[in-house]
Amino acid sequence: MTTGHAAPDSSRVRIAGTMGKAAILMEALPYIQAFKGRTVVIKYGGSAMVDAALRHSFAGDVTLLATVGIRPVVVHGGGPQITAAMVAAGLEPVFVDGLRVTDEAAIRVVQRVLAGEVNPDIVRLLRSHQAAAVGLTGLDGGMIEANPRDARLGYVAEVSRVDTGLLDTMIGGGFIPVVAPLARGEDGALYNVNADIVAGQVAAALGAEKLVYLTDVEGLYRHLGDEGSLISSIALTGVEEMLERGEVAGGMLPKLRSCVAAMSAGVGRAHILDGRVQHALLLEIFTPEGIGTMVEHGQPT
Fold first, then answer.
1. Minimal CA–CA distance to 196: which of 259, 151, 277, 153?
2. Interhelix angle for 252-264 vs 236-244, to 10°?
3. What would the pLDDT profile of 165-175 be if each residue is shown by its tens digit?
4. Is 60 exceeded by the pLDDT of residue 164?
5. CA atoms within 13 Å, Cβ hemisphere of 187
6. For residue 108, what are the CA distances in angstroms to 44, 124, 219, 226, 261?
7. Which of 50, 92, 155, 212 supports an S-S bond with 107, CB 3.0-4.6 Å?
8. CA pair distance 198, 164, nearest whole angstrom
9. Cut 0.85: pTM above it
């Protein structure tokens, strides 16, 4: 007795799966076309820097962005690595408003870790995915100039100027700049600059289309600690109001301050993403749903 249904055809199942992959590519096509030739500055930090699977997911995402004609620039942190190195050197890490207090002993550790260990490691990682990455620090070519931020913080500075000459040369040559957040002060001293702040200032100076922060939370929460209050989209004015009301603290504080400064200077949009999610960059940039918090000019959609 037959049921009237033919046996499953393995070739049809295979074709259906392949068509599904094609549909994903077609969904991404309008975003690829919209952002081709545009600059995207990515602040790379948190778990995405230390978890092996997330590291390779990030490197693959950046490589794909460059392959389809988007111009990525990576600005990295190195907080966990610096903390570990300070502890190993007998130095106690101290933070004020989410920023690391950096005395003379600490700045030497910061320079060694960021310029000598973390930056080359990220470049090697990207190159292993066939990305044309080039390691830089804010000291190279006088890229980043800074002024001391607060006497309580020691050798920690605010960015006073970004010279994009070297970055423009690298980007124009098809390279992906990977920037360590070190700067030379107007007094000639070496300074540690928060990577979120550097990313925002670099994005503003380059006229970036997007500024992306990879972090260890899902995004920006309306109420700190309440995971149900995740904000998927918010206007820049809404972020400014949250800062004015003191509703932001810890590591999110420099991110949002950086976001406000960058977007006020003309950056198109900012995204705060959970770097613990594989392919977070691609999901946010190439899908309509996105996965984190998007900050945009005007009213959120």
1. 259
2. 130
3. 999 999 999 99
4. yes
5. 8
6. 22, 23, 33, 38, 29
7. 155
8. 13
9. yes
